[in-house]
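Lecture 7 notes: from sequence to structure.
We start with the chain below.
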Amino acid sequence: MEIDTLKEMTEKSNNIVFFGGAGVSTESGIPDFRTDSGIYNQKSQYSYPPEVMLSHSFFMEHTEEFFKFYKDKMIYKDVKPNAAHTALAELERRGKLKAVITQNIDGLHQTAGSENVIELHGSVHRNNCMNCNESYNLDYVLNSPKIVPECSKCNGIVKPCVILYEEPLDTDSIDRAVAFLERADMLIVGGTSLAVYPAAGLIQYYRGDRLVLINKSPTPYDSRANLIIRDSIGAVLRTVI
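Predicted structure tokens for the same chain:
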């Protein structure tokens, strides 16, 4: 019944926006953060909790320790897109889906073929020198002979273009996301507990009556949803293409 309703909503919509979180990528083998098996609850050899190590102040004060954790726990270079990623790319190809707004930093939506992706928290695939702003790809960071990657031009620190705790979201990304949400005739939210702000607060800009939540656990927006599906996001989304 829920799947039939989702299909009907999708068929009637031509301006769909998808808003996703870590649960979209768990089916590709990337752990989320807050579930029992997530990064925040894993036993670790590190001296600090992950929330601390992923903060701007920790990066600045303990740069080498940050990169050890970052390369160990945040990079999943060999993972592949799953059914959710490929379904969303197909919906975009058909002209139904206008934008993917993601909290993920893994780049799997683009790998699957999605073109209009707004990465609220940045991407591991983009890295810039903090001194001269020279750009580097992920391989440069991973293959650096030093734990802390250095710019080949000026020897400055090469920082991943990911949003750390204590850092503001990119204003251009926020503005683009709001514009798509305000115009959307259907919003599909998947794989996110909607607990991380300010990203989760963007949902309020959707004013339509086709708000779909696909998540295995409850969210603060359940009472506002027109349809809630508690199932694998890949299994659900593949049914609409």
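Points to note: The first strand starts at residue 16 and ends at 20. Residues 60 and 66 are 9 Å apart (CA to CA).
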